[in-house]
Amino acid sequence: MRSRTPHSEKFLKYIGSNWADRANNLPEVSAVAPFASSRRQAVAKQFAGELILIEAGATKVRSNDTDYMYRAHSAFAHLTGWGSQTVADSVLVIDARTTATNSILFFSPTAGRDSEEFFANAAIGEFWVGARPTLSQVAALLDIETKPLSELEAFIGDAKAKSLEDEEVAQFVSELRLVKDEYEISEMRSAVAASIKGFEAVARNLVDATLHERGERVVETAFYSQARIHGNNLGYDTIAASGAHACILHWTNNDGAVHEGDLILVDAGVELDSLYTADITRTLPINGKFSPIQKKIYEAVLEAADAAFAVAKSGVKFKDVHAAAMAVIARKVSEWGLIDMSAEESLQEENQLHRRWMVHGTSHHLGLDVHDCQQARKEMYLEAELQPGMVFTIEPGLYFHADDLMVPEEYRGIGVRIEDDVLVTADGVENLSAALPRKVEELEAWVISHQN
Ligand code: GLY
Ligand code: MN
Ligand code: MN
Predict the structure, then answer these.
(1) Is there a shared CATH topology between the 2-175 domain and the 182-451 domain?
(2) Is 420 touching ligand 1 by the criterion CB < 6 Å?
(3) 446: which of 126, 166, 255, 378 lies 20 to 30 Å off by Cα?
(4) Which of 359, 395, 399, 416 for mutating ligand 1's site (highest number of atoms within 8 Å of CB)?
(5) Helices marked H in 256-365 — which ranges?
(6) Ranges of each domain in the chain
(7) How far is the CA of 111 from the centre of ligand 3 (A)?
(8) pLDDT value at 94 more than 90
(9) pLDDT bucket at 358, cuts 50 / 70 / 90
(10) How many CA atoms, within 13 angstroms, populate the side-chain half-sphere of residue 426?
(11) Is 395 in the pocket of ligand 1 (CB under 6 A)?
(12) Using CA atoms, how far apart are residues 176 and 444, in angstroms rounded to an integer?
């Protein structure tokens, strides 16, 4: 269906007339508003005397005249509190040129019934995609001054403005998200809860998956349905990796079969309307029972995860969480005779042989982006000490490719990752995804319990 509408003066008048007045009902102020306001104040303080523009970003063409689902830039979402309902191309201006800092949100409010956009613009017109909010509605929702996007250019005038393309700005707003505030922590809990519903749907569909030649897609879409029902979308493409596919770290084709007796690695997260996402992995025995070798590998990964949990607390360096997991991985592969040296030797910088079977890191910050705060400086991330309010993953794994001649045959084609989302508290960490079983017997029972 394409936009092919009449254009005569007479028609424009006709279609633009005799509509009931719009109800300009003002929404309640969002719970995020005071938090977003203090985040903007932090930006203004850092860039005192300057004009900062934070762009939500444009839509992206998928093919011809259809776009990808729109998603605002995370920095924009963080500093405005506007999530899945963000109008594309919006711009947040933090004007710190004077001491009375002012933030203004520029966006295109819904067009009038007297405009061609109203009925003829298939991309953004009200007849095609529904009405956008009014300036006063967004002002009320986010407790921020709003202006039409058409006035942005005149507002900036000849002033020099900095945007996210400025390295200092990108770094600062990224580091501003390293410690989550109360609102964010509550959203992270909800994102995890929604994702657990997704994993339950996966478990309910495992038998069905074995009956379909693209059973991984059965698993992927079981999770996706929950993401769309309970949230905005997926936080990232689901990895539904059965059998040897589990060794491909970002296997997102998900077009393989799901065989009874294999493991399936499912790495998935629901992104809420606020745009916060979880990032959880479970490696499930498809028939509800681990084989002895599957169990041996799974429990080694679990031990590595538990070691990471045991060291993770306020004051410990972020990178030491990884080190704790790697000490276990190195010990296991050495004990199993997969490497020709002791764990201690392998852990030395110049060796690292154990990393053949786990090339990725153990942890990353998590929030609005699945890999959150990536523009942060190293000293604020890897080298930094954990602080209460930080949220990150613990996700060790072991991956033995089907063609890995370095390991005995029985290991080949088995990949395991266990990924949980954790919150640093005053006296340790809280596993936000603890409601999803991780121990062998509990996981087996959980899979079985969802099969009827
Ligand atoms: N799902 C991507 C990751 O675990 O980092
Ligand atoms: Mn992750
Ligand atoms: Mn993941």
Answers:
(1) no
(2) no
(3) 255
(4) 395
(5) 292-311, 318-335, 343-347
(6) 2-175, 182-451
(7) 41
(8) yes
(9) very high
(10) 0
(11) yes
(12) 41
C-alpha of residue 391 to centroid of ligand 1, in Å: 14
Ligand showing the shortest atom-to-Cα distance for residue 236: 1
Measure Cα distances from 275 to 71, 81, 191, 192, 241 in Å: 8, 9, 9, 13, 25
The CA distance from 253 to 20, in Å, is: 49
| Residue of minimum CA distance from atom 4 in ligand 1 | 279
Cα distances from 357 to residues 273, 328, 404, in angstroms, run 36, 13, 10
Residue with tokens 């309902």: 85
Q: Is 236 in the pocket of ligand 1 (CB under 6 A)?
A: yes
CA of 267, closest atom in ligand 1: 1
241 — pLDDT class (breaks 50, 70, 90): very high
Asked if residue 2 has pLDDT above 70, the reply is: no
The answer, yes or no, to whether any atom of ligand 1 lies below 6 A from the CB of 421, is no
Residues 6+ apart with CB under 8 A from 417: 246, 265, 267, 281, 283, 301, 395, 396, 397, 399
d(CA 56, CA 84): 11
pLDDT in tens, 390-449: 999 999 999 999 999 999 999 999 999 999 999 999 999 999 999 999 999 999 999 999
How much distance in Å is there from the Cα of 185 to the middle of ligand 3? 19
419 CB near ligand 1 (under 6 Å): yes
The pLDDT tens digits of the residues spanning 319-346 come to 999 999 999 999 999 999 999 999 999 9
Total residue count of the chain as it appears in this document: 452
Selecting from 3.30.70.1350, 3.40.50.150, 3.20.20.140, 3.90.230.10, what CATH number does the domain 182-451 have? Answer: 3.90.230.10
Q: Tell the residue nearest (CA) to atom 3 of ligand 1.
A: 279
Residue 419 alpha carbon, nearest atom of ligand 1: 4
Q: 147 and 99 in contact (C-beta within 8 Å)? A: no
Backbone angles phi, psi at 186, to 5 degrees: -65, -40
* CATH tag, 2-175: 3.40.350.10
Amino acid at 142: L
Tell whether ligand 1 has an atom less than 6 A from the beta carbon of residue 279.
Answer: yes
